[in-house]
Amino acid sequence: MYDFVIVGGGIVGLATGVLLGQRYPEARLLVLEKEGDWAAHQTGNNSGVIHSGIYYKPGSFKARFCRAGSHSMVEFCQKHGIDYEVCGKVIVATESEEIPLLENLYQRGLQNGIQVARISAEQVKEVEPHVSCLAGVQVFSTGIVNYKQVCQKYVELVRAQGGELRLNTRVEKIINTSHGQVIETSQGSFEAHHLINCAGLHSDRIAKLGQVDPGAKIVPFRGEYYELKPEKRYLVKTLIYPVPNPNFPFLGVHFTRMIDGSVHAGPNAVLSLKREGYKKTDFDLRDFTEVITYPGFWKLAAKHADQGIQEMVRSFSKAAFVRSLQRLIPEVQADDLIPTHAGVRAQALMADGKLIDDFLLVKGDRAMHVCNAPSPAATSSLEIGKAIVAQLAEPSVLQTAVNS
Questions:
Q1: Which of 25, 47, 90, 95 has its CA 20 to 30 A from that of 5?
Q2: What residue ranges define each of the domains in the chain, with the CATH number in brackets?
Q3: What CA–CA distance (Å, rounded) separates 31 from 146?
């Protein structure tokens, strides 16, 4: 019998394990991960950005957790000797109609308590000499880190606190009992007083195994990246973002300098035909069928048809991808870019076609299900973990959130 069983060995599950161990040092804790390594999916394939929280609705979980997380993640890295850099970023308007949207972002940054500044096109060039734009916003607290290294430290801390961690252990069935849950897996059964579901791309399925309806379905979107050749890395000093479409949950194709010095360009956002589909050819019949038979997907597709077509064109046309990048840095040429790894975003979608734009935490009987935790979940991992621990201790602290 375990006091807590966490399903999912990504950054949110592991951070929650650390915080549970700190809060309840005598408790028996178990973390289950179906893969052979930690942080194998969303966490291990993201862009490594410590986000500021500028994009998110004031008062939302994302806004609060990300702003706090940008500080707690830096403090964690400092404490444990993990390489990071608070390099800042610029968000730039390249067309006149983007100027009001840029101003809205600036005001949102102020509302969220983030250190931001309006800067002219000339001032942008002082930060990023190769960018062409009309105006920009500088965000000072944005940073970069390798989240796999963060996760490895989380694993070490869970072990040091007495927690157990099991890889290659897939959850197959959950039986609710009067005392908690019996979790049947590919490596045997485990009994838990409390279940915490941090299964990312499969979080909705784990919730349903536990007889909890999350009110949404995970739809996977693949983000494809290119990398600047080493001799062209001088084109990007920090992070360069366009003004995002406020009606679309993705930030647009951008440039990110990684903590290892490489520069990634992307991502686009296209429907993945497999929940763990990192290649265009990846396909899973169950995953595909669930998406195309879900009413919410078709409502979403109809609403964002133009944007979706643009994303698909960028996926299959390097020239189109390059044109998107040239809006920010005109000097970039197709020969400067080489393909690199893709990531898959687990995006929760409601049946009415609305994307859930906040973290979604659904409480069950002796259970907590994290059913929407895409970016900025890595930045916010310690803060999400704190919220889960608080909810387990005081049920009134945290309520289910769906921002429609």
A1: 47
A2: 2-45+148-216+356-393 (3.50.50.60), 219-349 (3.30.9)
A3: 22
